[in-house]
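User: My advisor, Dr. K., asked me to get a structural model of this assembly before our group meeting. I'm new to this, so sorry if the format is off. These are the inputs:
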Amino acid sequence: MEELKCYMPKTLKEALEIKAKVDVIPLAGGSDLMVSHKRTMGLTPVFEKPVMIIRNLPELKRIYRNDKGECCIGAGCTSEEIAENTLCPWHLRQAASRMGAIGLRNSATIAGNIANASPKGDTPGPLYLLDARVKLSSVRGDREELVSDFIVKFRQIDLQPDELITEIIVPYSEDDFDYIFWHKVGTRKANAISKITVSQAIKFNKDDTVADYRVSATATGAKTNRSRDVENIIIGKKITPELTEQVIEAFDKVISPRAMPEFRREATRRMIRRFLSESAKRPKGKVIDTYEGYSVTGAPTPRS
Ligand SMILES: Cc1cc2nc3c(=O)[nH]c(=O)nc-3n(C[C@H](O)[C@H](O)[C@H](O)COP(=O)(O)OP(=O)(O)OC[C@H]3O[C@@H](n4cnc5c(N)ncnc54)[C@H](O)[C@@H]3O)c2cc1C
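Assistant: The format is fine. Below is the predicted structure of the whole assembly, which you can bring to the meeting.
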């Protein structure tokens, strides 16, 4: 068998120079790649191209606020690092804290989750909801793109051959909303691939009309679903049961779940109905109907 080269750059600059010259597969946590390249038990995975290990590049491990107050998350940050860092938006921390089990959360990175472009991936739901962008870097320079555009379709991303994802920039957080919602339906508490995940957020004007409303759902089509047209149905108006049903009906037309479609549609309808009807009552807390044990601003209780 032909031996393949494995690159282990020490800096981002070095990694980008390699990416510009060689057709390499970037390997971060390896939790998707090692599975997709696995062979039978006892045999090591085989890669068709050289691999470049990028998981320990220091430039990809930072979480900070930029001068606009946006949360910037290094591409190589793991789910555990995101779940534990209160700079990261609440919805994203919930999603990160429910990915796989503890071992996986310590290796799976946010860039790997995005680049995998699975409709069942947990982080794209919150990232779509909060208008997050990916920063893509190459020796030619940097560019930014909305995560929702970067994920083109099932397993397809808008990444040029010489580029790496270097940062995820999230302009909104829970502070921008009055009520927030995140719910993952899985078959187990840990290691559960999403059956469906719904993220929602709402902000009211002083006169009780809706200033902003957002809803996204994963595992409900070829990629994560969100539609500003649907959300606009309720923006500028007071929540009524009739308007809520209009939103539900319109979102139902946006999603296209293949497996268990009626279950996924009904679960989505119920979660939208619950969030809108509960937030219309203007309760004291900020979180509506998430899993027990999660608080608004503290770190989520991890599921081992
Ligand atoms: C047991 C198990 C349970 C899982 N449970 C969940 C779950 O609950 N929820 C969920 O969403 N996912 C889950 N996954 C899937 C997987 O763990 C995630 O998608 C993870 O975030 C992938 O990240 P990684 O760093 O391991 O990616 P890798 O496997 O290293 O890479 C994945 C892809 O991303 C590319 N890539 C990585 N980093 C970059 C970069 N910086 N720039 C460009 N391309 C890059 C790689 O080349 C590759 O194509 C599970 C996987 C396993 C094996």
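One thing worth pointing out at the meeting: The chain is about 30% helix and 20% strand.

User: Perfect, thanks a lot.
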